[in-house]
Amino acid sequence: MLVLNRKSGESVRIGDDIEVKVVSIEGGQVKLGIEAPKHIEIHRQEIYVAIQEENAEAATFSGDLLDLLKNSSN
């Protein structure tokens, strides 16, 4: 893992297409701005994990798809 120190207004570049900028620092919270091409998905870690778990669950679903559709409309 690369660990860098950055001040407010400074940024880090990842490859040619991604820039991560420290927008502000308030108390114990750092606000980041991320500029990346639209085809690159950007998620908070907890959201990314939830998406992965849902995808894994969907990949192993062995029930009737019609029942799944009926239950999701309720």
Order of helices and strands: EEEHH
Helix/strand class: alpha+beta
Shape: elongated
Query: Low-confidence runs (pLDDT<50, min 5 residues)?
Result: none
Distance between the termini: 45 Å
Give the overall average pLDDT: 90
Helix content: 25-40%
Question: How many strands in all?
Answer: 3
Q: Main beta sheet: strand number and arrangement?
A: 3 strands, antiparallel
Number of helices: 2
Q: Specify Rg, calculated over alpha carbons.
A: 19 Å
User: Could you give the order of strands across the largest sheet?
Assistant: 1-2-3
Question: What is the beta-strand fraction?
Answer: 25-35%
Q: Any key phrases for this structure?
A:
74 residues; alpha+beta; single chain; 27% strand
In words, what does this structure look like?
The chain has 74 residues and is α+β, with helices and mostly antiparallel strands. It is built from two helices and three strands. Strands 1-2-3 form a three-stranded antiparallel β-sheet, with no helix packed on it. Strand 2 (18-26) and strand 3 form a beta hairpin. The radius of gyration is 19 Å and the shape is elongated. The protein starts with 10 loop residues before the first strand and ends with a helix. The model has no long low-confidence stretch (mean pLDDT 90).
